Amino acid sequence: MSFDRHLAEIAREYPQWTIWRSDAGRWWATRHHPLSAAQRDAGCAMTVDADDPDGLRDRLREQERRAGEPHRWRTGPAPP
Question: Where in this protein does the record put region Disordered (predicted)?
């Protein structure tokens, strides 16, 4: 799958985040809104990164778990 297609899919799955790939080839996501005190206390991050698209999805799912918020905007099947 192409790099652009991965970006588009992840962005569609996680609309509350801005998704991009750096010139160095790392995959990144940054939240659109500041973290709440509760999210900070739960260990949530404003920005996460990974080596590849699957790794970034894993990091984003982990952020959802930390925040205690199921992903309400997912268009595909729910994660395992």
Answer: 61-80
